[in-house]
Amino acid sequence: MSSREQWSSRQGFILATIGAAVGLGNIWRFSYVAGENGGAAFLFLYLLCVLLVGLPIVIAELALGRRAQGDAVAAFEEAGDGSVWRYAGWIGVFGAIAILSYYAVIAGWALKYFVGAATGALWTTAAEGYGSYFKTFIANTGEPIAWHAAMLAAAVYVVAGGVRKGIEVVNRWLMPILAMIIIALALFALSLPGSGAGVRFLFSPDWSVLAKPEVYVAALGQAFFSLGVGMAVFLTYGSYMPRNFRLPTSAVAIAVGDALFAIVAGVAIFPAVFALGIDPTAGPELAFITLPQVFLQMPGGALAGAVFFFLLSAAALTSMVSLLEVPVAMAVRRLKCQRWKATGLIGAIILVLGIPSALSFGVLAHIKIGRHGILDAIDAGVSNFLLPITAILIALYVGWRLDKAIALSESELGEGKLGVCWHWLLRALVPMAIVAILLQSASVL
Ligand code: PFF
């Protein structure tokens, strides 16, 4: 397997993994989940989940992936044919496809808003209000599918280019630009009169919200989704990682980069929302209904809005690329398919699978799975069940099934305190936290 591609540099690898982690989750999802769950106290819990649950799994995924030098299923191959552990790899691949099918739809909304903001069309619809603008758009039949297809085509183009020439190059360019954009937007938001209330919402905790069990579920769910663990992305990206990259520092860079991005996005969003006296608990609509209204009302808002929706679309693209690479790596390895063919075919399958989500606010709005429409049901199913289940399997596999000495040496944490602490987190705290969350999610079904 010496012909297997590898990242060209440590920096390129880190930017690609941060690109996988930073996405709609940090901007669109973080802002509304933090808004709904009380702001600062939620932020504190979320950071705790990233550190104690998310980071250990990122390390485990990278270590397993690098050791296997294969795809998501190969990471568990050592467990032997027919072993139940191997399903973890398959669930990861299946989950990546399922996420991508609806994630691309939301990314398509972001792209539509970016094009609208850049051409000015988004700013002339104020009269009808963004609530009806957004609802009319997503209730459409052709448009959401077309934007979904456009985002998928972009992801296919990047992944077909290969690990170095496609994925790494795009992330090297986009990630520094996105970091600068989010910082600039945050500074701009802070300069608005009345922004202090938003800063307080995000940083001065009201601990009473910690009495609600849903807040814990939301914090752990957000940590998982935002980091992108449990979907075999880091298993796959880790498999292109040469031996001489320091694994623990890379994992810390991913976790810190991802959390910082979410916090700075919060600083860009909440001060603006509060400065204009808008309710922060709008839910998933926050980015698409509340924010355009905010941009419309603020000086320089048309430019800030265009830049914001560019950020949202580009951040979504780099995460889509990482999700697409999971099944592509698998097809290339197992079916000996050429990369561009595999990418095109899988892209086409995801395009079709995403159509019900794209239509779930329009012609298919009557279809409900439990309480949810199609897109929301897939999101809830994946984020609340599939993702935690794969994460728990990875934690248990590395914690209990894999030889301890191998786990410690592959993770490069060694036999010292750090290594032992990581190993125990995987053995006990991580699985317990995940089971608690699964039970809680099941109880609210
Ligand atoms: N981490 C991405 C985000 O925050 O938008 C979403 C994501 C990417 C989830 C990759 C899962 C994944 F495997």
Structural summary, described in words:
The protein has 445 residues and is mainly α. The protein has a single domain, classed as Orthogonal Bundle (Hydantoin permease). The protein has 17 helices and no strands. It has helices at 10-21, 24-36, 40-68, 86-119, 130-139, 142-160, 163-190, 196-203, 213-227, 233-238, 247-275, 286-297, 301-334, 339-358, 374-401, 404-410, 417-443. Helix 6 crosses helix 13 and helix 8 (196-203) crosses helix 11 (247-275). The model has no long low-confidence stretch (mean pLDDT 93). The site of 4-fluoro-L-phenylalanine has 16 residues, from helix 1, helix 2, helix 4, helix 9 and helix 13.
Set down the secondary structure blueprint:
Blueprint (H helix, E strand, L loop, with lengths): L9 H12 L2 H13 L3 H29 L17 H34 L10 H10 L2 H19 L2 H28 L5 H8 L9 H15 L5 H6 L8 H29 L10 H12 L3 H34 L4 H20 L15 H28 L2 H7 L6 H27 L2
Overall CATH class: Mainly Alpha
Output the radius of gyration: 21 Å
C-alpha end-to-end distance: 46 Å
CATH superfamily: Hydantoin permease
Number of domains: 1
The oligomeric status of these chains comes to: single chain
Contiguous runs where pLDDT drops below 50 for at least 5 residues: none
**Overall pLDDT metric:** 93
Overall spatial form: globular
